[in-house]
Task: structure prediction
Amino acid sequence: MNIPNQKDLLHQLSPGTKVIVIPHRNPDGDALGSCLGLAGVLRKIGCIVKVISPNQGPYFLHWMPGFQDLLIYEEQTEQCDDLIHSAQVIFTLDFNDLSRTGIMGDQLSKTNAYLAMIDHHESPGSYAHYTYSDTSMSSTCEMVFHFVQEASLGQHIDADVAKCLYTGLVTDTGSFKFSHTTPTTHRVAASLIELGAPNQRIHELIFDQNKPSKLALLGLALHKMEVMPKCKTAILQISQADLDAHDHQKGDTEGIVNYGLSLEGIVLSVIFIEHKHEGLIKISFRSQGDFSVNELARKHFEGGGHRNAAGGKSTDSLEKTIERFKSIVRSSGELTREH
Ligand code: 5GP
Ligand code: MN
Result:
């Protein structure tokens, strides 16, 4: 399982220890699930734990145990800065570079706390005292499960913790279908169900509580989708005007990019989403097989992630960003090769 020696880290964690647990900005099911799940376990051993998210999470995760108690850095900055200042241990989960927390990264880079990272993204940074990084893992939630077992704290995984960890397994594996879903992932899922995660209900809560705005935006994005057959690429886009016209809510656009990959012969799908207020285009990439969107995002769009799922951004206009993307894929030998 490749879990680094936990002795120093566990030594820091006693009853009364002030701990902060942090997901990446725009947290998804895996980021929030791993943070809320680990926080639940640490509270059982007496630690005083706060989960601070850089910004708000998507509405389809509002039911997660602990979600309502999240502190939001970009809304409660002063209170969060005080907590970060007095923290003894800080866990950073589901990311590996402090820049992934947005403006919160400045405070984190100044902290004197013991920093622990648990993450499955490529190219981990070296900021943490304790680093458990494994890119072969399905999800950070699976890693937290292994981490907790290795620390002999498995008895503290109650039904609420199991719900949180199961959520990350489901969302990061695309409901157990992506390539990093292993027999061990399924065994962990089975254990979590036995520990009280209501699997069928969790799937319903995540996927069957859509707002009409989500389906409207999906329809619009599919309608406007462009296919570049020679480059085996599908391009989706959503403008700020589209978002405004459909009374958009956070989380509405998640998962739309995957539809591009469902087309026969497509190995790269991308979605460009315009965020006018932030002056940026947020980009999500998905690929099938060997084509690395992590490299593409890292090299051209200030981003990164995994081989088959990555994100990035651009400060150019929507049109310019898409044109730049098209010229990159047209000149990619890997994508334009016949076989
Ligand atoms: P999504 O497209 O769903 O936002 O993200 C896909 C994957 O790429 C996730 O694992 C996410 O954590 C990662 N990711 C998304 N945006 C960025 C980014 O700007 N930088 C890096 N390094 N990773 C990202
Ligand atoms: Mn993840």
